[in-house]
Amino acid sequence: MASKKTGKKESKPDKPIEKPIKKIGKKMKKKNYQSFSIYIYKLLKSLENAKNVGISRKTMQIMNSLLLDMIEEIATTASRFAVHGKKTLGSREIQYAIKLLMPLELAKHTNL
């Protein structure tokens, strides 16, 4: 190619064109981990007599697994109450499941 101003040919550089290196494989996906630790900590701090009390990581894991197990058990019990052919669980089924699973004092607060 001739340059318009000088009339000389432009030379190409001698070094090869560097292409970006392709990544082999897929990107690492972040594991979807559901945790209630933020809410447990906020609940602990909202208590009047536990303002200066902390919670250890092991205890937080135990509380988190307890909550996950309770939610799973409530959902399975509520699904037994659902009418056959109904695809969604309503608040009534959840309240009945909580009344069955929770002790009497806690079951009073289900608003049924």
From TrEMBL:
Short name of one Pfam family: Histone
Composition-biased stretches (Basic and acidic residues): 8-21
UniProt xrefs under Gene3D superfamilies: Histone, subunit A
Annotated stretches, region: Disordered: 1-30
A GO MF term: structural constituent of chromatin
Highest taxon of source: Eukaryota
GO CC annotation terms, alphabetical: nucleosome
Residue ranges of domain Core Histone H2A/H2B/H3 in the record: 22-100
Family: Belongs to the histone H2B family.
Annotated protein name in UniProt: Histone H2B type 1-A
Classification of source organism: Eukaryota, Metazoa, Ecdysozoa, Arthropoda, Hexapoda
